[in-house]
Amino acid sequence: MKKVIAQTEINVNEEGYLTDFAQWTKEIGTEIATDYNIEMTDRHWEVVKWIQEKVNEGAALSIRGIKKSGVIDIKSFYALFPGGPLKVSTKIAGVPKPKSCI
Amino acid sequence: MKNLVILGAGTAGTMMANHLVSKLPKKEWEITIVDQYKTHYYQPGFLFLPFDIYNENQVKKEGKKFIPKGVNYIQKKIDRIISDENKISLEDETLDYDILIIATGSKIAPDEVEGMQGKNWQKSVFDFYTYEGALALRNKLREWEGGKLVVHITEMPIKCPVAPLEFAFLADSYFKKKGMRDKVEITYVTPLSGAFTKEKCSKSLGYLLKEKNVNLEIDFAIERVDNENSKIIDYADKEVDFDLLVTVPTNMGDEVIGRSGLGDDLNFVPTHHNTLQSLAHENIFVIGDATNVPASKAGSVAHFQAETLTDNILLYVEGKPLKEEFDGHANCFIETGENKALLIDFNYEYEPVEGTFPFAGIGPLKLLKESVFNHWGKLAFRWIYWNMLIKGIPIPFVSRNMSTKGKKLN
Ligand SMILES: Cc1cc2nc3c(=O)[nH]c(=O)nc-3n(C[C@H](O)[C@H](O)[C@H](O)COP(=O)(O)OP(=O)(O)OC[C@H]3O[C@@H](n4cnc5c(N)ncnc54)[C@H](O)[C@@H]3O)c2cc1C
Predict the structure, then answer these.
(1) Which GO terms fall under molecular function for this chain's record (chain B) (predicted)?
(2) Which residues sit opposite B331 in a β-bridge?
(3) B349 three-state secondary structure
(4) Is B255 exposed, middle or buried (0-12, 13-18, 19+ CB in 10 A)?
(5) If both were cysteines, with which of B231, B327, B333, B354 could B368 make a disulfide (CB 3.0 to 4.6 Å apart)?
(6) Are B341 and B377 in contact, with CB atoms under 8 Å apart?
(7) Does the beta carbon of B344 sit less than 6 angstroms from any atom of ligand 1?
């Protein structure tokens, strides 16, 4: 599905996650964040960058992984990305929503 | 003589011993299997034990009885896998291997969450993923007078991911039968974004929670159990009160994997998704719950894996390329209470869908629909488990790779 975000046409899935990371820019991330009433700060970007690196390495994201990463503690992760921090932060980061197997 | 060593004589290890004993040339290969316990448990039965549907004797047997003649059985604790030297150290001896199969499974780690294994452990906080836990919970349920029952998953992955939901459904039936359903409030708490994580399941099965009057709390990432106030609290400060908490704690691979430096964060061994060879060592293979492959951790999955792995061990011995065959195939019954069950059949690629199984258009089992027949299937699974599955006898008409026949794929 196509969508225009930050004046750029990008491909997203039904839930609004980018399907092609190559299309991601910081501006797009910033605009997705506003849907969640999040104003991006350096701390937000630090976490987003870490998530992008992990996904790039092929690692599976989980709350546990974040806890062990040393990049942020879970309480602050929830404070930065209220709601479902993994769901929200991955959407802003332009990477797929973490899968959990049935 | 060359040595093939299997670590763990649970579902997967026992199956591999039975498969390989007749296939590896006896003159060249000696097969050894190691497990710490004398008892082999039928873990799917732990779901039924708390509700007095099964008794103790239906879920355990002596493990040795299922290890075929011609395989050495050692009942000892495995201390370490020394992969650089192709050695295994047990409590008081060392084994050499040419090929190693890791089948040490996964187990609960309640100490991963603050307060979980606290003063109320097995008083008002229970698990049912262990024999001891399921039994203690049965005794509690027999005398419990009602209140808030919370069924909870700590984090994924867990073995048999549908078991907690089945527990909630069976609890509904159990309390109805006891004439006390009005005294019990059932809440299902999950770290996921829905009771069923696969989209098609959610659509077809969403009605079940309503029908059984089970409340749903999603996206709950537990931080701690508050024993003073009988609450579970998550990282976003959400709270759920309970009188009786039935939790599925974090599931992890055995500590021996961690000690040996072979595991990920959760002590699962990084494994090739389709060949089941370990990613780090070409003479180490991994099967069942011990792997990190993104398939369900279930006995049925281990059964399909065992067929591929047997072929691959033989190919490896002959120095031939391995088959990239395992497709994540899982086939699970889901108890929905009141003597009905669902059946789901899926793999890495396809979500569970509606249809018939195993014969296209005929069944007799229905996919993704409740039926009494499926419930019989689930109960028959215990017989199949003890008499066919772990003995490595193929289950008629059910193939190792998922079949798309008889399924409504779109
Ligand atoms: C409540 C519940 C319900 C379930 N329902 C179903 C179902 O309906 N259908 C289904 O298909 N599956 C079901 N399962 C899952 C199924 O039981 C497991 O997936 C299966 O048993 C995995 O087999 P495994 O051989 O990998 O591990 P296991 O069978 O757990 O075996 C591992 C073995 O390794 C041994 N071991 C580990 N570490 C060491 C060590 N350091 N030293 C010595 N020995 C060691 C252990 O003693 C154990 O015997 C259920 C599980 C549970 C808990």
Answers:
(1) oxidoreductase activity
(2) B345
(3) coil
(4) middle
(5) B354
(6) yes
(7) no
What is the residue type of A1?
A: M
Q: What is the dihedral of CA B201, B107, B21, B384, to 10 degrees?
A: -50
Write phi, then psi, for B41 (nearest 5 degrees).
-95, 145
Q: Are residues A84 and B193, on separate chains, in Cβ contact within 8 Å?
A: yes
How many distinct structural domains can be found in chain A?
1
Please determine, for the modelled complex, whether the ipTM score is greater than 0.85: no
Residue of minimum CA distance from atom 5 in ligand 1: B44
CA-CA distance, B198 to B153, in Å (whole number)? 17
Q: Which two tokens stand for residue B18?
A: 């039975």
Residue A101 pLDDT > 50, yes or no?
A: no
> What is the enclosing helix (H) or strand (E) of A35?
helix A26-35
Q: What predicted TM-score, i.e. pTM, was given to this entire model?
A: 0.93
- Judge if the beta carbon of residue B332 lies within 6 A of ligand 1: yes
A101 in a structural domain: no
Q: Is B359 on the interface with A (CB under 8 A)?
A: no
Residues of chain B with CATH 3.50.50.60: 2-105+254-317, 109-251
Q: Which of B10, B63, B5, B7 is nearest to B30 (CA)?
A: B5
Quote the CA–CA distance of B68 and B21 in Å, as a whole number.
Answer: 7
- Is it the case that residue A100 has pLDDT exceeding 60? no
Rounded CA-CA distance B194/B215 in Å is 12
Task: With respect to residue A6, please indicate whether it lies within any of the assigned structural domains.
Answer: yes
> Residue B279's pLDDT is what?
97
Ligand 1 centroid vs B106 CA: distance in angstroms? 6
| Exposure string for B93-107, b = 16+ CB within 10 A, e = fewer | eebebebbbbbbbbb
Convert the pLDDT of each residue in B170-218 to its tens digit: 999 999 999 999 999 999 999 888 887 666 777 777 889 999 999 999 9
Whether the Cβ atoms of residue A54 and residue A65 lie closer than 8 Å to each other: yes
Q: Does a structural domain hold residue A63? A: yes
Q: Which CATH superfamily is domain B109-251 in?
A: FAD/NAD(P)-binding domain (3.50.50.60)
CA of residue B344 relative to chain centroid, distance = 15
Residue reference for tokens 């069923």 = B196
Residue-wise pLDDT tens digits, A41-78: 999 999 999 999 999 988 778 888 888 888 898 889 98
- Which residues 6+ apart lie within 8 Å of B65 measured at CB? none
Q: How high is the pLDDT of residue B410?
A: 61
- The CA-to-CA distance between both ends of chain A, in Å, stands at 26
Q: Which domain holds residue A70?
A: 2-93
Cα(first)–Cα(last) distance of chain B, in Å? 53
Q: For residue B290, how far is its CA from the centre of ligand 1 (angstroms)?
A: 9
In a domain, A102, yes or no: no
